[in-house]
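REQUEST FORM: STRUCTURE PREDICTION
Request ID: SP-0412
Submitted by: Lab K.M.
Chain count: 1
Length (residues): 242
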Amino acid sequence: MEAATVGRWTPDASMTSEVEFERNLDDIDCDLQSCYRNFKAYYNQKVQSEWASAFPGLRSYQRFIEWIPRTLVPMCAYLRSCFGRCSGISFMGSTSLRVCHKRRIERNKVFETVAARGRTSLDWFFGFKLHLVVNDQGELLNIMLTLGNTDDRTPVPKLLQQLVGKVFADKGYVSQKLAKQLLKTAGIQLITKLKHNMKQQPLNERLLLRKRSIISQIEHSRHRSPDNCFVNILGGLIAYCH
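STATUS: Completed
RESULT:
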């Protein structure tokens, strides 16, 4: 919903909650596309000072924060509607989402029951893994959020449901068993970067593997609520789609 449209429309009393609900979705998405350091600065300095006329009856920052968890399910549905179409050439990857510094893992109480300790090629982290699949145009095809200690290959069968053709991935997805399973059950050819003891691939497949860089990483900030954390991740993905 554009700000200009909101400014010309006066909702009736029976629709107040729905209108506020949609405003939350708009503001969360705009924040992820802005240059502000955090959402509080964005809301206080941008929304309340410059966009107040476009959002009649705008709530305080604290009241807005209380509304955020209610946007989780609608944002999931909207993100699904933003997915692109499979072209037969897809790229798969994962990125770590840290919820705290590794020195504070033992003291973290907010995520102690919902996150897990994992390891990347560089270091240990505490949080989640975001698994993404995009087409050759960089459009999202599917996503999955798992615990930080989840093997990259575990969610692949569900992640690639309803896709066809070739899927390119890095060495973290190397598995003959998985490749045979995907080819047999879904007709998908999984192509991964080679390890030193594997046969060379055709040149065109090696070139396509380099395009995995089009998978964008979602910058994650610290949160005091798991629900707000998940909304932030969804907002980042929606902003990427636009």
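NOTES: The longest strand covers residues 124-135.
Reviewed by: T.R.
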